[in-house]
Amino acid sequence: MKSISILSGLFVSTLALAGCGEPAAPPSTADTTPTAAAVTVADAWCRPSPNGAKAGGCYVTLTAATDDRLTGGSTPRAGDLQIHEMKTENGMMKMGQLAEGLPLAAGETTALAPGGNHLMLIGLTAPLIAGETVPITLQFASAPAVTVEAQVRQPPMAGMDHGAH
Ligand SMILES: [Cu+2]
Q1: Mean pLDDT score across all residues of the chain
Q2: Contacts of 83 by beta carbon, 8 Å cutoff, 6+ apart
Q3: Domains of the chain: residue spans and CATH
Q4: Which site among 27, 52, 120, 121 is 20 to 30 Å from 86 CA-CA?
């Protein structure tokens, strides 16, 4: 029974050390409980897709409680959902897949919006019609997946300033 005597020896010396030091601070749930990884998904919407189009763009506003990453997603309305960015190449706006996903900084609001990052629904099962809603599930590196109902609607008029009324 050698191992038990070693363990009890450790236990005794730990008690002795604690007795010599400062009184232990009372446990504080605020300090010891880490913030749970969670992402809030707001204002989910999709552009109506032109008849016959096989892809459509959707947009969301994401706020992560902890540093996280949008890694992908899915929808029953399309075969694939990709995270795309817009970039300028030789003066042309092009979109490309963010293979590594989209980083989300803790507490910061990240808006996916026309002209910038977006969700690309590829292989639409049916056109996206203004007025309907599309369920979209988003996956994150740390936070649990979130499912939202994205509203299909026309984008705000191009070039309109956010401050304009
Ligand atoms: Cu795209």
Answers
A1: 84
A2: 70, 72, 73, 97, 98, 101, 102, 117, 118, 119, 120
A3: 39-152 (2.60.40.1890)
A4: 52
